[in-house]
Amino acid sequence: MILRLYILLPVLAVVLFLYGAIVNIGYIEENRCRMTYMFEHPQYTRLPVKGNERFPKYGLYAYSEGYITQRVQQRIFTGAPVLFVPGSGGSYKQVRSLASVALRKGIDNNWQTHLDYFSVDLNEELSGVYGGFLQDQTEFLELCIQEIVRLYGARGRTIRMFIVGHSVGGKLAQAVVAQPGTRANIGRHVAGIVTLSAPVDKPVALLDHYHQSFYDRIEQTWRTNRSVESVLKPSQSKASLDDILFVTIGGGIRDIIVHDGLTSSRYADLHAMTHNIPNVWLSVDHLCAMWCLQFVLVMNRFLFSMVVPQGRGNFGFVEGKHIQLDKATRFLSQPFAGSLDDDDDAHVPVGKGKELLLVQHNPEQEEWIEDIRRSFTERHRAGLDRTRVQMIRLVPDKVAHRFLRVEVINSEQSNWLSGCAAVEIHGNSRMCLKAVSLANYTLPVPSSKFDRFGALLDMHELKRNNPTWTHVLVKIPRTNKPVQFSVDIFNPDERMMNLTMPYWFDYRAHTILHDASPDDSFYRINIHGMAYTYQTIALDLTAISCGGVKGTVVVKVRVPWATGYDRYAFHEELNQTTVYIYPPIQKPPGGEDEAEEVPIQLDVHLTPGCKYRIRYAQSLRVTIARIVQQHLVLMPAHCIALLLLAFKDQLSQTAHNDPAFVVGKLRSSLTKPGPLVMLLATSSLIAKFLTLFKSIPPVELLATPLVVSILIHLASLGVLVIATLGLWGAIAFCANFAHKIILRLIALPIPVMSSTFLSCIHKFPLAIAVLLIAIALTACGGVSLLCAAAVYFVLLSKAYEDYLENFVFHTARKIASRLFGAREQSERDGKRGRRRRRPANETGDELMVINFHLPLFFLVIMLGLLNVPSVITWAKNYHYANTLQPDPSLVPALIVLVCLAVLWQLNTPRNVYGYELLAALLVIVAFVSVLYCQVHVYRLNYSIGLVFLAITVHQIIAPKRRDVEMVDVAEEKEPDGMVEQADQESEDDKKGN
Fold this sequence. Notes:
The chain is α+β, with helices and mostly antiparallel strands. The protein folds into 4 domains: about 40-225 and about 240-335, Rossmann fold (3-Layer(aba) Sandwich), CATH 3.40.50.1820; about 360-490, Jelly Rolls, CATH 2.60.120; about 495-585 and about 600-625, Jelly Rolls; about 635-740 and about 755-810 and about 840-955, no CATH class. It is built from 29 helices and 33 strands. The strands form 7 sheets. It has an 8-stranded mixed sheet with strand order 1-2-4-3-5-6-7-8. Strands 11-12-20-17-23-15-13 form a 7-stranded mixed sheet, with no helix packed on it. The protein has a 5-stranded antiparallel sheet with strand order 14-24-16-22-21. α3 links the parallel β3 (about 80-85) and β4 (about 115-120).
């Protein structure tokens, strides 16, 4: 019973992983992006690039619409240049949304300022999973930059451009300024780099060593020529890449390809997530980042804000990185509200170079009102006919008047919040003619319908810093739009709630607020104990009752150790809202005291007039989804490690002195808990032990929690068990069907030739292996590996057919002996049992052959799957070159195919010594796979190649097991038929030797 339950655990883990994948695809958060539309048909004009003959499959295009196309075809460019670089599998036409909005804005302002968008065609190559073309793409991108410089230089202009790179295109943009020998030349033409959903410092998966060397080269160059700090100290000299503005932008939880933690860089001047960018406020998926209207508008506003005139009718980007960074902070981060340039404001210097912004008041045109209520909301649906100034008294001695949460909707003045000493008298009211702006305390609040701003003030601290102040002022100018403002004064201890992250097995719902007051508009929730990226809490906010208003909830999530990852989640006109809380990057290691000091903070902004109930629970669905998203790439290493440990168990069934070698069953070895427990218990200990030796290469120290590691192990084991059962079913019931499929794939014009070719696979496996090696050398190693897997299946199915024939014959002979000669047969069997030891595997040699080759077949399949990106790249570029160059799959394919040529030709497994040493080697390779190949997945190619090489050498040179005396006696006493069978076995042994 316990063993059956153990078998169910891996299957359950596979089901959980499938469920997490489904949740990732479309059940976490709805897509609220609006489409970007064009007014005219887009035109892409190809521009000749000097040196393009080296890269005939790449190209450079300029975007245009309508009559603008004629100017582009005449090579007339007067705007500030922006170069778009697509990502893995991306098209140059993906620039359409960004370029169309920018073009329409340029037409609307009569070309007072405009942008020129260019796009690079990289042949839609899958550079995210195949790194062999990354260097070629970088060199062509360099040629494109030089060509754009020449286009503008022909009109006597010196320009600096912005590069917008999506996905791997962002990494190419970072690489082009780090090109050796040309860095100074290219860098001076690049004003800034903006990456969209790009894996900047770490790739999503390292499937070949070209990716590794590409990232290492960029890291080394940027570390040498770029300061990590965005603001340099006065004594610190500038590096050559410090003048380039570097902005990284992530998509959030909807981006299932490049998750949050991969989108930031230590060299970035600014990092932002789309769900925290003002006027975007939502997460976007990997492709949506290029057409989401909310984000496209903000991105173009940011680029247009840096455009300055350069001569007559020409425009370029402003010089000075500090100015560009200020613009990026204003548009892409959480800036202070307002432009600080209103007509009624004046800057007054106040000591030590500081200056305060004063807000002028005109009491004849304003209505001054002081309200003694602590919490209230006022709505003016018809607008205001006079400017209103709401006065909020500063009360320094009362704890209940310490914090102020104020929010305004549709206020048309940026400096709507200020503070002053109300000592002047106008009519029956106190007032002040000048007030100091508190715009640096205000922030925009997410809303899809209104201009909404809010502020949270510590009025006691404000009073201590400004002892003469008496009031905080909320100024709302006259308007015809509906206006609303709310004031909430409270004791922070009454609005602060603390909760602890539940244990991994606790999914109960907990209520932390039963019935909030309708006047309460703000709560702060501190979450302790949440440190890992997979941990997720579902926060449920339910509006119990609303007094004639529609509920709107805004939750700001702040993770103290993740700079730039603050997140706004807002839901409008919903009675029930669920917000998922998770840390985007793992908490740095620290003590328990530090964990208590920096909890994750949630600022919950509720709709005044509504009563809310707040509950929370650990979310299983999002937790599993994030584990799948971030740790799926680790599964190949665990699958191969568990398969090698199971293979080791298969080879360990025979005692050292036993003359007959026996191979165990793969399914039985996989379902034993020993290999799994050994891998879990000792891998982390071995990793810590190996770090003590400097001569040993550093292991991949992954801070993966034990729960996640167990789930990954179980899911990997479940995949192997299900695949083993499926393969046995395919061999047992679908062998004939598989033969027909292979005949179809061969598709020779003459059926007889197809059948002959299939029979050659059975009779001449060495010739087929040589053909596969030729395919690897002339086409692609991955293609030959997939073909080798198909041939291997044919050989296994043929071995199973032979086993069935012998099994039926042996069963029929047994029945006949029982019916017609049971006594004589039993006597003969008794004599043979005394004189000759039968093999421990009673099912026959053919089944033992299948048991031996089944794990090898799985290794071939895994090797082929690991190199599928090379196969796809070879197929996409076949009309450019018949052979894939460079081919990361070639070396492991040649190693495995040469070994298969020997193993297929020999009568394997041979009855030889040395399987104990081979089993020990399999254990070592299994642990190496877990310690060194989880992140660097491409290293698994060489682990599998080493296993095949060791098995092949062992089968060739190992001494044979045999008991000569027993075999001779058996030959003398057995009947003629059995002697003939023994002779046949002897001949087979000679052939094997």
